[in-house]
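Q: Structure tokens for this one, please.
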Amino acid sequence: MGLDLPLELERVFIVEALLEAFEEDSEDRKATGDAVHIEEKKYSGSELDEIDASIDAGPCIECRYNETVVHVIARDPEWAFVFWDIRDEEMDELHASDAFSCLFLRVLKEPGYDGKASASFEVVVGDEDDHWYLHLPEEDRAYRVDLYARIGSKARLLAHSPTIRTPRALMADSLADLDPDAAELAALSGLASLEIVPAPEHHPSRILGGFDE
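A: Here is the predicted structure, written as tokens:
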């Protein structure tokens, strides 16, 4: 970029100088209308063309496939996104039963091959619901979500999701716990200067009240 920077300049100021230089270079090319910018405009199309194409385009995927399924995706160390569907025939059968009261999700922590788990909690969902954000109690743990129907005093299993694992909130409790290569990269990134506060051990949530001890 042809920048004249002092050798002792801190990394953050170098990055800032590079970003400003790239922005100025882009503005200069647009102002002068050079050949490169003309070629970019010729092949990229106009903004109006992009808007018209998005209006005329059909939907990419179906909203639902009329099958009984439940899936869960870990969004971050504390939250997961759950979405599900129930076949029309199966839902009609449930509604036809006078004993049917509700649908609910059962979240299993560290589920085993025998179906047992170290802990679980339940979240009641509406008949019209098809997705939910769940607050999970622990990071770096395996979870599975089962979809149930409450029929009288019994719970009928409709579907269960694949097991997922929540990510860790931090690479390690301290930089000293990292292996030498990872510690070197962390030092270069400036991670030590961020003063990251560890997450509390327990997360207060209305959902967590149903956890079995």
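A few notes: Residues 107 and 197 are 28 Å apart (CA to CA). The beta strands are 69-74, 79-85, 100-109, 119-125, 131-135, 142-151, 154-160, 164-165.
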